[in-house]
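Researcher: Please predict.
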Amino acid sequence: MPYSVQIDLHGQTVESAGRLLTQRLKQLPNDVREVRILHGYNGGTALRDMVRRYKNPRIERKILGLNQGETTFLLIPKVKTER
């Protein structure tokens, strides 16, 4: 059954947050379909703007909710490869 995970970017720089997002998206199990990114908003918009511009082939759609401090990624399921 698909499930969601959360990634908290509070306290990160834009560069380290981008690396963390890339690393975490690579490590996610196949059945994760939703990633809630907590980036904050009150301390500035640099992390929010980076997350909302962030590109990754697994991201199908981004949901910008009413909470300006978080963004949700809906993911394309990973294709299972047979060996």
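Model: The chain has a mean pLDDT of 91.
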